[in-house]
Amino acid sequence: MKILLASLVCATSLLAHFQTVMTDQSVVEQKNPKVSIQYEFTHPFEQQSMNMQKPKEAGVFFEGKKTSLLSNLQSVEKNKMTTWKSEYTIKEPGVYQFYVDPMPYFEPAEDKFIRHQTKTIVDAFNSGEGWDKPIGLKAEIIPLSRPYSLYAGNLFSGKVLYKGKPVPNAEIEIEYYNTQGLKAPNDMYVTQVVKADNNGIFHVALPLDGWWGFAALIDDDEKIKHEGKSYPVELGAVLWLKTEKIH
């Protein structure tokens, strides 16, 4: 029994961790300007949530300015775990980048802290401009393909930045937010992996409609002390986008 339990713990820890920021609409029209935002720390394909503390920072970036949404956050229980939500009403055309910088999560199985700086990008009132602008996170994915109004089957391209500079040969994990109960052939299929080129640029095809997460994992230059010991930090540049079917 002890061996079985240890195996189950190990298997769970090997699943990819993803911080999420997902909105109820990625293209906002004037008739429905209120956006609902969901924040969750999860294994997306397996739909296994983990407790998420109230984040260090959560906000929206618009026209070069960050606006905090921390005071708007409300906790939501999902599968007996804590997630968060907020709302934001859009008042003028443009591209809005919703982001979160969570409290670092200690993963004892990997002997490190995990901190995923995460964003998703929303267009309001058919603006179509500014979706490729960085918002100044320490780790960030910059879209090279428009990150909304995407069809299932599209090719997505992005660039990984760390401290404002491209990350050569960055490794990017890709995972589908699997609300449909789809089954992978085996565990190796759950998290897809690509590597960026020397300029930090990567390309990924998106075969299914729904939410897709991209996490470029970087060894941060800072460490965190925990119980008298310093631990490394896995800093993730995470981007979420949604694809749609053609009906």
Automatic annotation (TrEMBL):
<dbReference type="InterPro" id="IPR019613">
    <property type="entry name" value="DUF4198"/>
</dbReference>
<protein>
    <recommendedName>
        <fullName>DUF4198 domain-containing protein</fullName>
    </recommendedName>
</protein>
<keyword id="KW-0732">Signal</keyword>
<dbReference type="Pfam" id="PF10670">
    <property type="entry name" value="DUF4198"/>
</dbReference>
<feature type="signal peptide">
    <location>
        <begin position="1"/>
        <end position="18"/>
    </location>
</feature>
